[in-house]
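Lab notebook: predicted structure, single chain.

Context: the supervisor wants predicted structures on file for every construct in the current expression panel, including those that have not yet been purified. This is the next one on the list. No modifications to the sequence; it matches the entry in the shared construct table.
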Amino acid sequence: MEIFGIPLQAFLGQLLLGLVNGAFYAMLSLGLAVIFGLLGIVNFAHGALYMLGAFAAWILMDQLGINYWGALFLAPLIVGMLGMVIERVFLKHLYKLDEIYGLLLTFGLTLIAEGIFRELYGVSGQSYPVPELLQGATNLGFMILPNYRAWVVLVSLSVCLGTWYLIERTRLGAYLRAGTENAPLVQAFGINVPMMVMLTYGAGAALAALAGVLAAPIIQVNPLMGSNLIIVVFAVVVIGGMGSILGSVITGIGLGLVEGLTRVFYPEASSIVVFVVMVLVLMVRPAGLFGKEL
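Prediction complete. Output recorded below exactly as produced.
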């Protein structure tokens, strides 16, 4: 069976690849949207935090013998704690300044992190094995679905929807939003706003690290893996609407699928289709698809 002259299995295979890429876009853009929407920081270090999550998983395995399931918990925790240190030491001084200062600072931190890991591990990349439980593939009849890629999509969607629900539908999320809009008023009710802000940035960093752990068995773990992805993720956030959590999730998944379909019909354009969509969206709706118009 063929679709537009393309074998069905090849067509669905590219859609699956697009869905997996979209899951990573959604996870990373989710963390960016949380940090920008609640703290107003354009966090260019997000790609570096993603890379640190993957390297943390690899180091835990290589040096300490901790398997994938342990790394899935420990790596985001470690990187999240690092994120809290970054927020307390550097970012807390920038909240009243123009957003460009946060972008420049986090860009500088990215270059430092990449330089350190290039010096320590080179750029050739480290391999990380697929956990035994998730090895192999499932025959769906019309295509072969690798079990690990299905796991990535399932975890990514679950984390994205859970984060959206936490921030948009719970009392904790209401406190977070109120604390960023009127900190003195929230503090008057006995809530420690600086601590809440620090934990928010740490949570965003942990989300990036979790995406890195999920990516480790699929791609080579290397110091530049975040830089290769962060520009696309920023485009996803802009299209969805800066600070819109649901917009980032939906747009990330959708653009991953669009990218996959482009590889089927016009492979040469697959590397630029996200940016073409961004230009078209910004021409019609400058605030993004789900952003609030000023």
